[in-house]
Design goal:
Blueprint lengths: L14 E4 L22 E4 L50 E2 L6 E5 L7 E6 L14 E8 L12 E4 L1 E6 L2 E6 L7 E10 L6 E3 L14 E6 L6 E9 L7 H15 L3 E9 L6 H13 L4 E12 L2 E11 L5 E7 L6 E10 L2 E9 L7 H14 L5 E7 L8 H6 L3 E3 H5 L18 E6 H6 L1 E7 L2 E2 L2 E2 L5 E8 L1
Parallel strand pairs: 4-12, 13-14, 19-20
Antiparallel strand pairs: 1-2, 3-5, 5-9, 6-7, 6-10, 8-9, 10-11, 10-12, 13-26, 14-16, 15-16, 17-18, 18-19, 20-22, 21-22, 23-26, 24-25
Bound molecules: calcium ion (2 copies).
Length: about 475
């Protein structure tokens, strides 16, 4: 049981199921690779007393401040999945693929459609029937991670020979996932004594790639309320020893097991991975969850003689059903907002990340940007706007977005803490926000914390991140 509920819960009398807080080394898939996953554990919250309406103070300014909620969920760092042992098999000339299907949608506990893969070695598979002694396996792991190399959190399930197709041997398998989430799947093959050859949808000749992997969405079946954890973090591009900061970012996020993360200043160097792509695969190795990822490019920047492309990006542990971005007014720095739509326990949720102008004198530009976002909010869905708004609460930019629809979650969760986020090492102002639909903030807020990991004089970023936990009914 990972969830630990504090005494300051403002949602009383709920039975909460900790759906995403089970940590073990397997992917909770039926098959030989699984073992003792353990289901979700249920705990009674109780103890909070009171009603669902909260006395949050602020706003009207009447009444005393509520106590700070802090972070009532367990934030110990989960253990990582073990790395796959090094492959000592002999290399061989041949080919393999994932034949079909490219996507699978199932519900936890349901058996998948049959999944097919084909392999070829000249003079071997072209004989009648299965090539002698060959093995084929389906590899299933968190969406956004690959099954070769270290392949943490992958399950490998033996497939059965199906039929000869021309010169190829075709294998088949079904699986029954027991845990909801987002997964990639691939096939792999080996002759007796050979190394595994991995195959994706366009075959192994160009190796395997995430975009050519199968995508499996296992829908959740839970009806009980569960925590919804969201976070925002300005990654500060690839500066200030990113390789060391990356571990701090991943560790901070792994401790809170977020459902949705909004990043700003997420940078790539040339055609290399973005920071959020690097964070995604490492985070999965702790949380056992796969993540959909969306991004929108912002600008080219030169930092320390190096050119980077900055972007806004979002990681979602729930399937993204739609995404869009909006252009915001700007002067010094191009500004946009990126949004994804997800459905969590039946609730449509729109999640934004943004970064507004940060020059002190550009107050009006910030306010115009905030108005654009306010005008984009959907009706009939929960809205959560996260990001670096470039100014502290005193400037009131957050209120322009929030109007009477959203509320600033930090100020409600921890009314006795100003919670400055920038600069990280000795923060002066709270410029990083989570604004969410009023009913969620006032009726379903569990807690708030900063993402503020540091090691020696190195901080996870030049900003501290902000994490907010809600309960989704
Ligand atoms: Ca054959
Ligand atoms: Ca390929």
């Amino acid at each position: 049981m990972k969830a630990r509920w504090g005494v300051h819960l403002i949602v009383a009398g709920l039975t909460v199921t900790a759906s995403c807080l089970v940590y073990s080394d397997d992917l909770l898939l039926d098959g030989p690779a699984t073992g003792g996953a353990g289901g979700a554990t249920t705990t009674g919250v109780g103890g909070a007393g009171g009603s669902n309406t909260t006395n949050v103070g602020g706003g009207g300014g009447s009444g005393g401040l509520s106590p700070d909620l802090g972070w009532p969920l367990d934030d110990t760092l989960p253990t990582r999945c073990n790395a796959q042992p090094a492959d000592t098999g002999a290399s061989w000339t041949g080919w393999g693929n994932l034949q079909f299907p490219a996507t699978i949608d199932v519900t936890a506990g349901q058996t998948s459609p049959t999944i097919y893969g084909r392999t070829y070695q000249a003079g071997v598979t072209d004989g009648a029937g299965q090539a002698s002694g060959w093995e084929a396996e389906l590899a299933v792991g968190p969406l956004g991670t690959l099954p070769d190399g270290e392949a943490r959190c992958y399950s490998f399930l033996p497939a059965a020979f199906n039929v000869d197709v021309g010169n190829d041997d075709e294998y088949e398998i079904t699986l029954t996932p027991t845990q909801p989430g987002l997964f990639n799947y691939f096939f792999r093959y080996r002759p007796p004594g050979g190394a595994w050859r991995y195959g994706d949808l366009n075959g192994s000749d160009d190796d395997i790639a995430l975009v050519e992997g199968g995508r499996m969405v296992v829908a959740e079946t839970k009806t009980a309320p569960a925590p919804l954890v969201v976070a925002t973090l300005n990654l500060g591009c690839r500066t200030a020893d990113w390789s060391q900061r990356r571990a701090l970012v991943v560790e901070s996020l792994a401790r809170i097991d977020p459902d949705l993360i909004g990043f700003q200043e997420d940078c790539a160097e040339g055609t290399g991975p973005t920071q959020s792509e690097e964070v995604r695969s490492a985070l999965s190795s702790y949380t056992r969850r796969g993540y959909d990822r969306r991004e929108v490019a912002i600008e080219q920047v030169d930092l320390g003689g190096q050119t980077y492309e900055t972007r806004l990006s979002i990681l979602s542990a729930h399937p993204v059903t739609n995404d869009h971005w909006i252009q915001l007014p700007h002067e010094a720095m191009p500004a946009k907002a990126l949004a994804v739509d997800v459905v969590i326990r039946g609730q449509p949720i729109r999640f934004y990340t943004t970064q507004l102008e940060n020059a002190p004198n550009l107050v009006d530009v910030r306010r115009q940007g905030a108005q654009e976002i306010a005008g984009d909010l959907p009706s009939g869905a929960i809205s959560i706007v996260t990001g670096d708004l470039g100014a502290g609460p005193d400037e009131g930019v957050a209120n322009v977005i929030a109007t009477d629809v959203l509320r600033d979650a930090w100020s409600v969760a921890n009314p006795n803490q100003a919670g400055p986020t920038f600069p990280a090492s000795s923060p002066l102002d709270r410029v990083d926000y989570v604004l969410a639909t009023k009913a969620l903030v006032e009726g379903a807020l569990l807690g708030a914390k900063q993402l503020d990991a540091s090691s020696g004089s190195t901080w996870l970023s030049d900003h501290r991140g902000v994490a907010i936990a809600f309960t989704v009914p």
